[in-house]
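Q: My collaborator sent me two sequences in one message, no labels, and asked for predicted structures for both. Can we handle them in order? The first one she listed is below.
A: Yes, handling them in the order given. First sequence, followed by its structure tokens:
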Amino acid sequence: MNIEAISREALHLSARDRAALAEQLLSSLDTLTEPEIEQLWFAEAARRAQDLNQGRVQRIPAEQVRQEAQALLR
């Protein structure tokens, strides 16, 4: 089973079960070393840069993000 299939199946779980699964997955990362964590962050940064470069996502000005965050906190 690949990650896409697992994700599809997991999204059919109840919110409570998805939260429990997320907690289990996140806690399993606690055993990673600093270099492993750093490598994962570099890979994520590269993926996000590629998404920007290929037009799959759009930049949002920081001021807009700040305004939307403040609106959510009201």
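Q: And the one she listed second?
A: Here it is, processed independently of the first:
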Amino acid sequence: MPLPTSRLRTLNDAPPNAQGRFVIYWMTMSRRLHHNFALDHAIDRAAEWRLPLLVLETLRVDYPYASDRLHRFLLQGMHDNALAAQSLPLRYAAYVEPRHGHGRGLIEALASEAALIVTDDSPSFFIPHMLASVAPRLPVPLEAVDDYGLLPIRSVGKACPTAFVFRRLSQKRLPPLLLERPRAEPLFGRSLPQLPSLPRALTERWPALSLHELGRLTDALETLPIDHHIPPVALTGGAQAAQMRLAEFLAHGLDRYQDDRNHPDRQGTSGLSPYLHFGHIGIHQIAHTILAREGWSPDRLALNPRGAREGYWGVSANAEAFLDQLVTWRELGANTLTFLPHAEHFDTLPSWARASLLKHAQDPRPYTYDLATLDAGLTHDRVWNAAQHELVTTGLMHNYLRMLWGKRILEWSATPQQALTTMLALNDRYALDGRDPNSLAGITWCLGRYDRPWAPERPIFGVVRYMSSANTLKKLRMRRYLEAHSAPTGQRTLF
């Protein structure tokens, strides 16, 4: 099946190079060699031109919050891809910047030998700015492929103010889209010419790393100019680990998801968000694997969808609940970043939320904490401290507690603007799934985005939804969680 046109954007006006030696797939967000629309398209373009395919996966050292934690997770994924590529009829090249700015000019140099370049289209992090910057400088077409969600990001055409609005719209549009899936094995039955050697740029000025060198660098991060204060975590990155996590969730988590996901003691979440963020697994594989497990067929979809959270998919309640998180909430964040520029800024919040928070900005705070104290998890609130400790030590935070975590920061900050800055700083520095549309959606939800006014009006919060640790302890099973994460993180000097 050719790539749906709704998933393709050409980012410049350059013509293809008829003398090009290869097609490039510049892998930036969908960092895997299977279930990947962008890879499918690059293969199709290479086959059309009867050219070899060069898959280039790059890693800068100057991206915001670059650290040992994030770098190791990414490098583990690159190692998986290098290993998998050995048995595929393509040439894989992994380039890791050894110092700031060393990779500058690489794409342009390779473009001079290429017929065209395919890359990933994503609203995440610095990717939109990077693509917009490099596209005009290329002598060949730069084709960006949207592999982010079940719903092509730009097909909505506007920012949706609530999950209900987005859910109702997506439910109406999803049925034909569910028939559009990337290939599980993109090169099965395909024959491409082999690229006999890497381009000179990748052997001389910007040398690609071998499989062995990637593995060695994963354990030698101190040689790179990144933040060494944020250590790696136990969770392993890469496509292989992502597949294992999905299999584990299907075997032991999905059937109890609805009841267990909000209780920290039960560890009922999928654990897939870091792998989705780094593209080590894709939403199409996850969604269709779950639907197949449920014995699903398209005729089970609701005939007249109205945006309800339950009853649309025609599957079990647990699968319905998980698919709503996977599709509605994850893709809502991407919708917001695409159609609401600078969604991380306070002045883009809904007008009612801004007005209410600013009205109460001068209210006395029961406690105020600076960024260093919050970073160290040394507040008076043991639930909040445990959530922060989990984030710092594991790179993860329980989904429900991330909402409470953000609400407490709002209550303890001098202004709501400062609260937003603090949430982003802590989340994006430590979380494996930070710097992501989904985590930004969760953070700004704490300040009223996607929500409605709630009575009664309260100090500090105004009519923004209130949450407390005391109520959380009453509602959730947390004894084992608090025992596991009660140790303070200790004083650090990051801020």
